[in-house]
Design a protein that fits this description.
CATH topology of chain B: Rossmann fold
Strand order of the largest sheet of chain B: 6-7-8-3-9-10
Oligomer: heterodimer
Helix content of chain A: over 70%
Radius of gyration of chain B: 19 Å
Number of helices of chain B: 10
Distance between the termini of chain B: 38 Å
Number of strands of chain B: 10
Strand content of chain B: 15-25%
Order of helices and strands of chain B: EEEHEEHEHHHEHEHEEHHH
Order of helices and strands of chain A: HHHHHHHHHHHH
Structural class of chain B: alpha/beta
Number of strands of chain A: 0
CATH superfamily of chain B: P-loop containing nucleotide triphosphate hydrolases
Strand content of chain A: under 5%
Shape of chain A: elongated
CATH class of chain B: Alpha Beta
Number of domains of chain A: 1
Largest interface: A-B, 50 and 62 residues
Largest sheet of chain A: none
Number of helices of chain A: 12
Largest sheet of chain B: 6 strands, mixed
Structural class of chain A: mainly alpha
Helix content of chain B: 25-40%
Number of domains of chain B: 1
CATH architecture of chain B: 3-Layer(aba) Sandwich
Shape of chain B: globular
Chain lengths: ~290, ~290
């Protein structure tokens, strides 16, 4: 199999002959094909995200501050003044799923900055030269963004539980929560990557990110029921994937009436659409 | 050149074949008709000043830029029609220092093992071998952010090697490095080539490196290849040309002289209409600043 090298190997401290030193580097790995490519790339990108979080947990702690304040200050206060009609559910319970969705979205919506950094540093270029179709790469990134969102959700659930929110501990429902958080953050991170593919610079992406997060948050049912909104805001909420995410989380976690089928369908469709649009614009970042 | 384990069969397939490669960014022609053949097992250098079209040529070969079918082939696979097959054969190190500083050396390499479908049971051993091949075994568990510029380059070599590529493509691998780091990077490249029989396609500004380290060279200028051959052939060609021109005893030319002869200008004075000069310089500076 391996032929003699053209020249004698240079003197080296390593006593092993090159045939052994490089034994594994001579055989290309067997290619995965078909449907197995996407899950493999998703796993690879998620592994990187987890490794980064293991090395530096600062972000986890600082990210926990905002949702804690929302629940502690906003939630406790509005529970007391009964200003928002949430039926028989205490306002803090009503708010908790909304804050999970919101804080996950805040993470995902700036994910495009990472893509721009990766493009500037050459990491993206290198990934684009691996046997990874663009859609698979974007899918991998989208779910890697979900890793942080899921950890964030766990933190918020813990805070909410500590504040006495009556949450479900049914493992099936919690699995549903996991899926909903992943799907939502896949959509918002793809939205962010799509914007990154259009604006191409970090500063512009930051600006747009700042401009859209609050409208997405206030234009959803995260803080108040849709029935309490004026008509035009109800229309915004209907077109806002965050509302479907909150509806599903609320149904799963605290058992309010929800439209789980519709919610999941909308979230899956939004994620697929997001992946398609981000993948189609990825080429602009490669140039 | 070296008999390689990869060249099976009687008919040798070129490692890289470009036939009439053109690429324009808007109205500026970055590559303007390049015909190129890289033989399996050789170290082939692509030389030229900023904006000569070297990087664009490489980006076409790596499938990063869309090219029409039949223009670029890698070991017989068409870069337009069989993109994934081409990518599986490539190890690519871009100009920028592209290792991720927030991961360890080992994790950086493991990512590329994963995206090239290295099975889990083989992953750790393969990653260790790739790191060992570039002399980073002892730094494997350190964060890449703590590496020196030369170490980052070697780490990137390991990232490219872990998938056992048949063609290693290096875009300005020694840019921004001090002479000692340069030599260590080149020594590794030479060693790996000897040990694995890989084909190496490298771009560089440095005539000296090209002269010492490459088997064959193509001199590029304004999107075209102006001269092609071994360093000795190129220099001998110029001497012969000078004799014909009537010089009795022309002094032995350097590669720089050869380049100046073919391009009409030196490396320091690229033409006024070179594309991408600014972005090239910006990228180079960014690389240099990361090298520290």
């Amino acid at each position: 199999m391996s032929a003699a090298p053209a020249a004698p190997p240079p003197a080296s401290a390593d006593p092993l002959p090159p045939e052994e030193r490089y034994a594994l580097l001579l055989t290309p790995p067997q290619a995965r094909s078909g449907w197995r490519v996407v899950p493999a790339r998703v796993a690879a990108m998620c592994a990187v995200e987890l490794q980064k979080l293991r090395h530096d947990r600062t972000e986890l702690y600082t990210r926990a501050v905002q949702p804690a304040l929302w629940l502690l200050i906003f939630g406790e206060t509005f529970t007391r003044i009964h200003a928002i009609p949430t039926g028989h559910v205490p306002y803090l319970d009503y708010l908790a799923p909304g804050i999970i969705a919101q804080s996950a979205m805040f993470i995902a919506i700036f994910y495009g900055i990472m893509i721009i950094w990766e493009r500037d540093s050459g990491v993206l270029t290198k990934l684009l030269v691996t046997p990874t179709p663009r859609a698979a790469l974007v899918t991998g990134k989208a779910f890697a963004a979900g890793v942080k969102a899921v950890i964030q959700a766990v933190v918020v659930i813990a805070i909410a539980a500590a504040l006495g929110v009556a949450l479900t501990w049914n493992p099936l429902r919690l699995l549903g929560v996991l899926a909903v958080v992943l799907l939502g953050s896949a959509f918002f991170s793809c939205l962010s990557m799509t914007i990154a593919g259009i604006v191409l610079t970090r500063d512009r992406l930051m600006g747009i990110g700042q401009a859209i997060t609050m409208p997405l948050f206030f234009g959803s049912n995260a803080l108040y029921p849709v029935s309490a909104m004026p008509g035009w805001l109800q229309a915004v909420s209907t077109a806002n994937p965050l509302s479907y995410q909150v509806d599903a989380l609320r149904g799963l976690l605290i058992g309010t009436p929800a439209h789980l089928g519709t919610d999941l369908a909308v979230l899956v469709a939004a994620a697929v659409l997001g992946i398609a649009s981000a993948a189609s614009l990825l080429g602009r970042l490669a140039r | 050149m070296s008999p390689s384990r990869h060249t099976g069969g009687d008919e040798p397939v070129a490692a890289v074949r470009c036939t009439g490669l053109h690429y324009a960014f808007g109205s500026t022609k970055a590559v303007d008709g390049v015909d190129l053949e890289v033989e399996p097992g050789e170290v082939f250098g692509l030389l030229g000043p900023n904006g000569a079209g070297k990087t664009t040529t490489i980006r076409a070969i790596t499938t990063l830029l869309p090219v029409p079918p039949g223009v670029v082939g890698v070991f017989g696979h068409d870069a337009a029609r069989q993109r994934m097959a081409v990518r599986r054969l490539l190890g690519y190190v871009p100009q920028q220092l592209s290792a991720d500083g927030s991961l360890t050396g080992e994790e950086n390499v493991a990512l590329f093992a994963r995206v090239f479908d290295v099975p889990r049971r083989e992953r750790a051993a393969r990653v260790a071998q790739a790191l060992d091949a570039v002399g980073l075994a002892s730094a494997a568990h350190r964060m890449a952010a703590t590496y020196s510029g030369g170490m980052v380059r070697r780490l990137e070599l390991a990232q490219a090697l872990v998938s056992a590529p048949r063609l290693l493509i290096l875009d300005e691998p020694t840019i921004g490095l001090d002479p000692i780091a340069r030599d260590s990077v080149w020594d590794r490249i030479t060693e790996i080539r000897t040990g694995t029989g890989m084909t190496v396609l490298v771009t560089t500004h440095s005539m000296e490196e090209a002269d010492q380290r490459c088997d064959r060279l193509a001199l590029m200028h304004r999107g075209r290849i102006r001269a092609l051959g071994t360093p000795a052939e190129l220099k001998a060609g110029l001497t012969a040309h000078r004799r014909e021109a009537g010089e009795a005893e022309p002094p032995p030319p350097s590669l720089e002289d050869v380049f100046r002869h073919f391009s009409g200008s030196g490396l320091d004075e690229p033409g006024p209409d070179e594309r991408g000069e600014f972005s090239d310089v910006r990228r180079t500076r960014r690389t240099a600043s990361r090298v520290g």
